[in-house]
Amino acid sequence: MKLFDVYPLMDLNIVKANGSYVYDEQDQAFLDLYGGHAVISIGHGHPHWKQRISVQMDKIAFYSNAVINELQAELAEKLAQISGKPDYRLFLCNSGAEANENALKLASFHTGRKKIVAFKNAFHGRTSLAVAATDNTKYTAPVNETENVVFLPFNDIEALKTYFVANGNEIAAVIIEGIQGVGGIHVSSDEMLLAIRDLCDTYNVVFIADEVQCGFGRSGKFFSLDHAGVQADIYTMAKGMGNGFPVAGLLIAPNIKAQYGMLGTTFGGNHLACAAALAVIETMEQEDLLNNATRVGAYLLQALKQIKGIEAVRGKGLMIGFDVPERLGNLKQHLFREYRILTGDAGPKVIRLLPAMSINQEIADNFLQALQAAIDDLNP
Ligand SMILES: Cc1ncc(COP(=O)(O)O)c(C=O)c1O
């Protein structure tokens, strides 16, 4: 049987991985600065993560949400501490799209309203409402078309205010990525986030922070919104949360009340998923990875800005992007083929760096050297 062909594949067969390196079948090492779409947060095959999962595997791997699962309570406790939001409630699920789908649905349940405000270039996932709130018509099927979602210009406070003044009482939620990922690493301004908070308070709208890519420490703070000192009503999390084990979740403000049946999932919050997420948080604490992401991220950002040939270096912590001018051709492919470095992209013009939060300065320097050499190769 052939696979349903929806992914253009790189010519790379990864057979093992360790820390920030992955290895092909010839045992060639590749420096992984992409982590399989921002997923590898504490490093491939981290010993604590492997041990936590395998110890749990020997006890019980899965049971559904019909029974008490103490690991969920333990994870909620850990999340309360690391996020600084002890009064929020945790709902566990399996993927970023599912987290956003649930967040949007919850906002509609809570407000009794239907309209959703999203932003140009947003990416929130592939399920029905999440994809409707995603600004890319290639991903939406006719059935996903809806008048309930409006896309406003990114970081445009006036446009937001105008929309709220006209429609405020119909809006269920505003959903925004603190740092747009798939859209090309664009940081939401502090002023914009404050304005969203303000308007959501005035019109009783639910503020959803999609922290699926930019959250869980990647930006150097646990949530990217923490940089602006702004609180959302719902935070969605996925990618880095399990370091590759599928697990996702929502943190929900206490004024949004739960009712039986409102949300649900078979696999979400299972024992192995909780063990993986706990291992990630414990490692982040033990290895001081938030501060490491801040430090190495700032170093990389600064150094990248000195490199001639690339443009518009941007980001926060270890979520970094830059533009690649056309004359450099396919820099990402060249880094992969000639320097064995994996980076991400966001369209043909943008390179995205989403390395493990544990990378050190030596790795950063190796990358910077290789990048300069690759640019020189392509633009002698
Ligand atoms: C900001 C954001 N939200 C949601 C998603 C969807 O996550 P998933 O692919 O786990 O459904 C992604 C994935 O790239 C994302 O970057």
Q: How would you portray this structure in words?
A:
The protein has eleven helices and 17 strands. The protein has 380 residues and is α/β, with parallel strands linked by helices. It folds into two domains: 14-46 and 288-378, Alpha-Beta Complex (Aspartate Aminotransferase, domain 1), CATH 3.90.1150.10; 47-286, Aspartate Aminotransferase, domain 2. The strands form four sheets. The chain has a seven-stranded mixed β-sheet with strand order 4-12-11-10-7-5-6, sandwiched between helices. A hairpin with a 4-residue loop joins strand 16 and strand 17. Helix 3 runs parallel beside helix 8. It is globular, with a radius of gyration of 21 Å. The relative contact order is 0.17. The model has no long low-confidence stretch (mean pLDDT 98). Pyridoxal-5'-phosphate is lined by residues 37, 95-97, 100, 123-125, 177, 181-182, 210, 212-213, 238. Residues 37, 95-97, 100, 123-125, 177, 181-182, 210, 212-213, 238 line the site of pyridoxal-5'-phosphate (PLP).
